[in-house]
User: What shape does this take?
Amino acid sequence: MQLKLFAAAAASLVLTAAGQAPATDQTVHYFARPVVEDGKLTSIAVELNFRGDADGETRLDLPSRWAGETEYYRHLRELAVDGAQAREDGPEARILTHAPGAEITVRYRVVTAYDVDPKVGETNGNPYRPIIRPGWFSVIGYGLFASPGDNPSRPADFRWRELPAGWKVASDLDHSEWGASLFLGDIQSSVMLGAPDLRTYVRSVKGVDIRVAVIGEWTAFKEAEMADLAARVLEAQLDYWKAPAQTFFVSLTPMRPQEGSISIGGTGLDDAFALYAGTDSPLDPMRYLLAHEHMHTWSPRQLGAMPADPEASGYWFSEGLTDFLTHRTLLRSGIWSPEEFVDALNADLNAYWTSPSRSAPNGAIVEGFWRSQDMQKLPYRRGMLLALKWDYQLRRATRGRLDLDDVLTRQVVRAAELRRRGESPLAADLFAAMYRQAGGPNLAEDYALAVQGGQPVLLPEDLFGTCARVETITRPRFHRGWDAQATTANGNVLTGLREDSPAYRSGLRNGMQIVKREFGEVGNSQVEYGLRIKAPDGTETVYRFMPVAPGIDHFQRVVLTPGLDDAAKARCAKTMSGG
Assistant: This one.
């Protein structure tokens, strides 16, 4: 792997011609320009040129909804249209009336959704709305670009307009300038960063460059190490799928840290992923996030279609399978050790078995996915446990000859064949059929009981052979004693504290300011909990208690076989990851 560092505002990346690109075909030409006034970035200016529809009427969709957020159009200013008359079709669209096939230009500015730099814990998940701060910006295409019509396969291209003096920019849309074909769907599913001090690192993976763009000051890791990690993850997953490398882009956006809390999040896009993290975040947790988001390049995109409405009804498959493959490739590649693999799996098992939503049917997940963090994670964990179980069942049914790797690599080929024929089966349905073809059992009962009915998914004791065992145990029910989600949303001020809880009896009260968890394990009722609290006078006190609630929890955990030497661990890493 080769290391290169370059300024993303190199001349080849910047379009300095001010004129309109000729709209001589169906291509939609996009331009973007950071607007700096009195030395401060105030907005992103956007322009698009295109030919209107042949019938003389074109619908222009404004940025509206994505990833649980709505009304992105609220951040647009000074929308103007040349070459057509525009009328509103609700706040999220304009109907353009024009001569048949007329050349049309649309201009507008996008302003920030955040009055201050986003802070860990202050946003509902990742800050997906436009972040346009005085000295930098980070924007997802869904929140920036309007679109003429709803055909994601319509050709498009992108260019930067004149950059402010000293500014650098980077985006996966830059691939257009290097000869890559773009479509409207690519324009929407994009990310762009800009700042005078933006740094872009390049790594070569199987002969193809990937770029990692970074802004902000990171205190817990070296940026070059993050770029190295991204390259290792991409290479491991290309090896898994036996796929050729493609140009890829990674953005890292800073969030203000919150004392006692580490937050790392992100989202996978078509040829990029956007990462968001507190500037004090360590590098190790990014291994999972990078691997999960890049795995979405295949799962489910190349395995078949997702349910159109509601898409969340298919997250048990798309997100659950992606987590299964994430864990598998991290272990197989050596990025995770067997101990780290088991720790990660146990963290998911613990969260699954202690989740108050564990028995929620899939329909309830659809309703609550964007409203509850616990509900949001349930399809990930449920689907991953089903994948582990189904992998085990297929290995037993075929006496070790086949596993899920064989099903999925065959499914990618089959899905591509069906797309060429104009067919688009649901990825989960195609998987069930391919699994049955490979010799596995019918999955209809598991789907009905676990996914639709919410019954618990139990892993077999010998899931990992002689390398580890799965234990099923009981223990007192875990509960901190307060409403954890409401407390986080309230700036880590204790909220919803129950007066019948050990936490209350330890002296904790609603309204107290949490500094951090001093000790204890989330989900583990058998380990003492310690919470550091800051009083109004600045003094700090640690309150100790057992995080228990009435009732008994049944749950599973994985125990690595003790006494394994290095050679045995290497063999187990291969066995446990299906290698």
